[in-house]
């Protein structure tokens, strides 16, 4: 192992060549960040306070909203600091911690989407046993399993970052710390840190997607066996919000992967922009999707605003 004796901090980067409009970009991102905080915060508030939403489906939705809030709160301070105040320096320990939480929460999101697919599978394919299978205890265990899997899987590569010597340029390519950016600055054998994340992505994120897809094939098979067209539509309607969230998450994952893999000649600003889309679009869209597509959430929001209006 190599003991890291470098004391020079890393330097975060905003949008190179666009420094004159950093303040305007910061304002736009601040609006997005506030929207994410309000949207996901409202979902959590509704699920916590409305007894009609104390069901496994909404507990998993609360996990998704918490994950989205976690990603936002992890990246927001450094992004706004760089773009608004030009505070580019970040200590190694803080940088490694930020990278750990960013990558962990990405895997958590994939795991929560898988848990939500399991919830829909049980609700539609085995409705009579739904409440006995997805008890509060089991939902909690699933949540802890998703969190533990993500946290432990990312830990090996982050721990190694503390031991690498950094004798290259200390300039990172984003306004937040990513593992793949940090290892480019290390003067050491980074083979493990290059290969391990690929294994994690294939073993977890891709596997999650395949299991989700298989679950929906079984769900569709069950729904097609329902005689009543109205009942078929009702069953499928309960899955629409989840399917939209799956598409939002995995389309951004594929888009980011495609840009990094095949867009080597694309302008650097395209890579940076795609990274922001990856981290901001799902947390922004998930509350919107569930607010539009889920009647119980709509009713909860209406009751919330009606209550505030009455008190006023």
Automatic annotation (TrEMBL):
- Membrane topology (UniProt): Multi-pass membrane protein
Report the record's Gene Ontology biological process terms.
cellular response to lipid
| Cell cycle recorded as keyword | no
G-protein coupled receptors family 1 profile domain residues are 39-290
Segments crossing the lipid bilayer: 24-46, 58-80, 100-118, 139-159, 195-219, 240-263, 269-289
Q: What are this entry's molecular-function GO terms?
A: G protein-coupled receptor activity; olfactory receptor activity
GO CC, sorted alphabetically, is: plasma membrane
Subcellular location(s) per record: Cell membrane; Membrane
Keyword DNA damage in annotation? no
Q: What is the protein's major site of localization?
A: membrane
Q: Which UniProt keywords apply?
A: Cell membrane, G-protein coupled receptor, Membrane, Olfaction, Receptor, Sensory transduction, Transducer, Transmembrane, Transmembrane helix
Q: Name one Pfam family in it.
A: 7tm_4
Q: What does this protein do?
A: Putative odorant or sperm cell receptor.
Concerning its family, UniProt says: Belongs to the G-protein coupled receptor 1 family.
Spell out the PANTHER family in the cross-references: OLFACTORY RECEPTOR 51B6 (PTHR26450:SF22), OLFACTORY RECEPTOR 56B1-RELATED (PTHR26450)
Protein name per its UniProtKB record? Olfactory receptor
């Amino acid at each position: 192992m190599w003991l890291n004796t470098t004391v020079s901090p890393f330097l975060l980067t905003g949008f190179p060549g666009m420094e004159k409009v950093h303040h305007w970009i910061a304002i736009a991102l601040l609006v997005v960040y506030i929207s994410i905080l309000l949207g996901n915060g409202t979902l959590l508030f509704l699920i916590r306070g409305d007894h009609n939403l104390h069901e496994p489906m909404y507990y998993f939705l609360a996990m998704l909203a918490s994950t989205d809030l976690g990603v936002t709160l992890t990246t927001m301070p450094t992004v706004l600091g760089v773009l608004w105040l030009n505070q580019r320096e970040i200590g190694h320990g803080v940088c490694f911690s930020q990278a750990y939480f960013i990558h962990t929460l990405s895997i958590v999101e994939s795991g929560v989407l898988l848990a939500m697919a399991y919830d829909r599978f049980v609700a539609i394919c085995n409705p009579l046993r739904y409440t006995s299978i997805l008890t509060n205890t089991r939902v909690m265990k699933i949540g802890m399993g998703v969190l533990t899997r993500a946290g432990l899987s990312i830990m090996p590569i982050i721990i190694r970052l503390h031991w690498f010597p950094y004798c290259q340029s200390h300039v990172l390519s984003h306004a937040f710390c990513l593992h793949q950016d940090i290892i480019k600055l290390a003067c050491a054998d980074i083979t493990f840190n290059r290969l391990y994340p690929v294994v994690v992505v294939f073993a977890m994120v891709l596997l999650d997607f395949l299991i989700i897809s298989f679950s929906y094939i079984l769900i569709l098979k069950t729904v097609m066996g329902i005689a009543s067209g109205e009942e078929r539509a009702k069953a499928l309607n309960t899955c629409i919000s989840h399917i939209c969230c799956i598409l939002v998450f995995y389309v951004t994952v594929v888009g980011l992967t495609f840009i990094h893999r095949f867009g080597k000649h694309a302008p650097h600003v395209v890579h940076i922009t795609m990274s922001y889309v990856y981290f901001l679009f799902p947390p922004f869209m998930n509350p919107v999707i569930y607010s539009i597509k889920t009647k119980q959430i709509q009713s909860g929001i209406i009751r919330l605003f009606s209550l505030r209006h009455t008190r006023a």
